[in-house]
Amino acid sequence: MVGANFMGLFAIIFGPLIIYPLAGLAWLSIRTKDGNVSLAPFAHFFSDAQSIAIVRTSLEIVIASAGLATTIGVILAALLFYLPFRGSATLVRLMELFVAFPSFLVAFTLIFLYGTQGSVNVFLVDSLHLSRPPIDFLYGFGGIVFAQMIYYIPFVVRPTLTALTLIDERVVEAARSLGASPLMVAWRVVLPLALPGIVAGSILCFLFIMNEFGILLVLGSAKLVTLPIAIYSAATIDLDLQTASTQAVVMLIASLSVFVVYRRVARSGSRSHTRG
Amino acid sequence: MVAGNSSRAAAPEEHELSPAREKGIGVRVANLTVVLGGRVVLDDLSVDVERGEFVTVLGNSGCGKTTLLRYIAGFVPSPNGKVWIAGREVTEIPPHRRNIGLLYQNYALFPHMAVFENVAFGLRARGVPTAEIGPKVTSALRSVRMEEFERYRPAQLSGGMQQRIALARALVIKPEILLLDEPVSALDANLRAAVRTEIKLLHKAMPELTVIYVTHDRDDALMLSDRVMLLREGRIAQMGTPQELYDRPRDRFVANYLGLSNFLSPAAIAKSLPGLDHARDEKDGHYCIRPESFRLDGGGPGRLAGEVARCEWHGSAMLLAVETGESGAETILVETPRRGSVPAPGDRVVMSFSPEDCVFVRE
């Protein structure tokens, strides 16, 4: 009975907030202009050269940013864990604080440093007597990937550190006592045991970058259109709600799929630790 | 055989290796001081263990026994300590090149590998050809009767089985020394006895293998060891055969650690056993008499009378607490076999003992 009441309360609160708008969005995406219900908008989306280009741009940016953030994040976490230095704990805490900032702040920080009028460029122009600012990568693929990588590294460092902390120190020592070199210990023992945590962190990072909006808006929306940007401009600039909702549903399904994968990996990771 | 904190036992030159003795050294630790987090965990400790010897490092938690083991394995740094394994100095050699076997209380098996891969790990690390790995692993698993479980994951096996796998994994690489850190403490009592016996038999089968066994459990120490090293606050309280430690404890701590004891003042002993060396002063120490050394049949020259206050049932024997009213020997614990009539609380008994059962121990 309590469960039923709770479900009722849940429906009353979340119905208008989430379920109704989502249902509306889905309805909008399958209703054609002449009032029929059809999957044609989706067929159009997946055959249209422009939308395929948008998907490709999105994927390229996500894979590059998430790949780099994961690689550097894992290396950074391993260094912080195995070669701690004075102040490394503070560094980790600062990195966690970083997560609390809005992502577009990172884009602004980068403009402040490396933009055409940024301090690094101004310094280089002044000291080397250049005619043009030498650093010019921000407004484009490189800049977006760089900013997203910087912002999302902490999202990989934290779960990787947790995964490394959860590994039983005695297991690592046992491996060394058996004659394994540090490289063999890292490859055969530490990495396999930390992998579920690392993969979970990188999938989460992938998911967040897929949905990233602020950094793109600041650094590259003019040249590089990703799916969130396309939805935004279709809805607010072109006022084409039909296209926007179709794109949004595609986006939603993609995000949910990535999230399902994340849950599976995270669960298998926690299970392997409790059993080990 | 040198054992002791070098401040009172040995001059430094005694730790120089002479070629003649080199062959007989299983493990030698010299002048080992370890400070962890500002606390002195081991204080200038030196010890020699002969090749093939089974030495138990006994002590309470925090006494430094596990740190000593981890130092020998190469996981704990020391500013001044030196360590030799099988006559070779390994102080500067990293753990993976020390050729040691290591066994932990929590087994520390690789949870992501099957039993076979766990045991094969050390062989692969040593670059043993793949063709030889299979037979070696199988024979190691057979020696601990686990050959049927090759394909299981550690989590699918019981604690006793996991510990046997860990033993096979440690021994398959033919280590010079086997280091065991409370290997049976996580097991229940019956299983503990079984694994203990297994370790004893394994050591018999490998007489060349030096074993260092860390434990807080005096039964482990008394049953398994050739010699026991009792540690207290980072120093050796006493080292010797189990019998020496039990029968001739150096001080009250050692006497208490190895078993129940009665401590009688020299004056009380003088009164109940005329003729024993009475020159001792109470400030120097007490006479230690084990509960099982007292007899209730009047068989020894020493005599103490009293009233039974409590009886404790210990299965094979009874433990009596006897109030004597004598100063310096107020309550005496007596262990008596169940043969014949057993005294009940309130009974008056006469306890006799022999001079050879009285050991003078320092405080």
Outline the secondary-structure elements.
The complex is a heterodimer of chains A (276) and B (363).
Chain A lengths: L1 H29 L9 H8 L1 H34 L5 H11 L4 H12 L4 H10 L12 H26 L2 H9 L4 H29 L3 H6 L7 H10 L4 H35 L1
Helix pairs in contact in A: 1-12, 3-7, 3-9, 4-7, 5-7, 7-9, 8-9, 9-12, 11-12
Chain B lengths: L2 E3 L13 H4 L2 E12 L2 E12 L3 E5 L6 H9 L8 E4 L2 E2 L10 E4 L11 H11 L4 H14 L15 H13 L5 E5 L7 H17 L4 E6 L2 H7 L2 E6 L2 E6 L1 H6 L4 H7 L3 E3 L1 H7 L12 E5 L12 E12 L3 E7 L7 E7 L10 E6 L5 E4 L1
Parallel strand pairs in B: 4-9, 4-10, 7-8, 8-9
Antiparallel strand pairs in B: 1-3, 2-3, 2-5, 5-6, 10-11, 12-13, 13-18, 14-15, 14-17, 15-16
Helix pairs in contact in B: 3-4, 3-5, 4-5
Describe this structure in words.
The complex is a heterodimer of chains A (about 280) and B (about 375). Chain A has twelve helices and no strands. Chain A has helices at about 1-30, 40-45, 50-80, 90-100, 105-115, 120-130, 140-165, 170-175, 180-210, 215-220, 225-235, 240-275. The two termini of chain A are about 40 Å apart. The mean pLDDT of chain A is about 85. Chain B has helices at about 20, 65-75, 115-125, 130-145, 160-170, 190-205, 220-225, 240-245, 250-260, 265-270; strands at about 5, 25-35, 40-50, 55-60, 80-85, 90, 100-105, 175-180, 210-215, 225-230, 235-240, 260-265, 285-290, 300-315, 315-325, 330-335, 350-355, 360. With about 375 residues, chain B is α+β, with helices and mostly antiparallel strands. The radius of gyration of chain B is 24 Å and the shape is elongated. Chain B contains ten helices and 18 strands. Mean pLDDT of chain B is about 85; it is low at about 1-20. The interface of A and B includes residues 182 and 275 of A.
